[in-house]
Specification:
The protein contains 7 helices and no strands. The chain is mainly α and about 220 residues long.
């Protein structure tokens, strides 16, 4: 998936050769210690496959990913919302003026279309960069799982990749550890206490626990 000859910018996840179809999968977990991802700013926040806590891990890692992208990507707000909703950002192309001879209307349209075109270019680049960033945070086991999907060839942007990771994580956890996972998720939710946490920290942990329980208990 990642070409060993290409160079990755660890701040953005952008590669010199981002074409995944022409590159072989690079094993990111070499067995030397615990896998912590390729991006230093997301160190320890990874997507793994094959354990009973992959759903919890997906939620926590994606939250950190969202915060990082919001801080560092151009139009970070759009990308944050895209990750939050797992939907590719869209914007309606400006309609042509009703009267092409109306100079004021034409100037307004030209300005709006120029903004739309620039937004589209940045968004396209962001989605490609997000793909490389997310892939670099996937363990070797998760990469192999994603590559085995029949839809793998259609996964060409970061949001689609996140959706595939989410599906793989929740399907694995619910199929392999359904009773254990639901029981543990409910136990964590019921025994969560604020203690020394701030209200914001407590609310964040509560929503994380609740999200995992709801998804597993479907």
């Amino acid at each position: 998936m990642l070409n060993s000859d290409s160079k990755t910018d660890m701040k953005t996840g952008v590669q010199d050769t981002p074409n995944k179809k022409n590159s072989s999968r690079q094993t990111v977990n070499s067995g030397q210690g615990k896998f912590e991802g390729r991006c230093e700013d997301l160190k320890g926040h990874v997507y793994d496959h094959g354990n009973s806590k992959v759903a919890d891990q997906f939620i926590l890692t994606t939250k950190e990913l969202k915060n990082y992208v919001g801080r560092t990507y151009k139009h970070g707000g759009d990308m944050t919302e895209a990750i939050e909703n797992l939907m590719v950002p869209t914007k309606t192309e400006p309609s042509d003026p009703n009267d092409p001879d109306d100079r004021i209307a034409m100037k307004k349209w030209e300005r709006e279309y120029d903004e739309y075109r620039k937004w589209s270019i940045v968004t396209h680049d962001n989605l490609k960069a997000l793909y490389q960033l997310v892939w670099g945070q996937c363990s070797d086991a998760m990469q192999q799982k994603i590559e085995s999907l029949p839809t793998f060839a259609t996964i060409t942007d970061g949001i689609t990749l996140l959706i595939a990771i989410q599906d793989s994580a929740y399907n694995y956890q619910s199929q392999k550890y359904i009773f254990q996972s639901v029981s543990e998720a409910l136990y964590r939710l019921m025994t969560l206490r604020q203690n020394n946490l701030t209200p914001a920290q407590y609310y964040e942990q509560f929503t994380n626990c609740l999200a995992v329980y709801i998804l597993l208990d479907k």
